[in-house]
UniProtKB/TrEMBL annotation:
Annotated protein name in UniProt: Uncharacterized membrane protein YsdA, DUF1294 family
Membrane-spanning parts: 6-25, 45-64, 76-93
InterPro entries tied to this protein: DUF1294
Lineage, highest ranks first: Bacteria, Pseudomonadati, Bacteroidota, Flavobacteriia, Flavobacteriales
Origin: domain of life: Bacteria
One Pfam family it belongs to: DUF1294
Length: 128
């Protein structure tokens, strides 16, 4: 998992902002629908969710009762949400397990090579 403070600071500001934007886009689309004006495309609504605004979009859909009866939109919206949950799971949980596995294998390989006396031989080959 990335521990870079700059990256974490970026995420700290990115997700609230993108969710605010996604919330606002759904609100504007609802107002345009009420006024029977040209609307924001579903592609753009879903794109704002896909880039991290799923929570903001979902809240706006519930608050403004917008796009809640259109099954095709909801299906795509929930697929995006499920994919994001899997991405977070694999990024956070699996990367820790993978990192632990790699470090344990490297440590055990180092211990084996040192015990077998091949470590110094390998280092001498690398330094040549």
């Amino acid at each position: 998992m990335v521990q870079n403070p700059l990256f974490m600071s970026f995420l700290f500001w990115y997700f609230p902002l993108i969710n605010l934007v996604a919330f606002s886009i759904i609100e504007v689309d609802k107002q345009l629908a009420i006024q029977q004006k040209r609307r924001i495309s579903e592609r753009n609504l879903l794109f704002s969710s896909a880039i991290g605004g799923t929570i903001g979009s979902g809240l706006a859909m519930l608050i403004f009762r917008h796009k809640t009866s259109k099954i095709s939109f909801l299906r795509k919206f929930f697929i995006i949400g499920i994919l994001q949950v899997f991405l977070v799971y694999f990024y956070v949980i699996k990367s820790k397990k993978l990192l632990l596995l790699i470090t344990s294998k490297v440590a055990s390989g180092y211990a084996f090579a040192k015990a077998a006396g091949t470590f110094d031989f390998l280092v001498s080959l690398h330094l040549k």
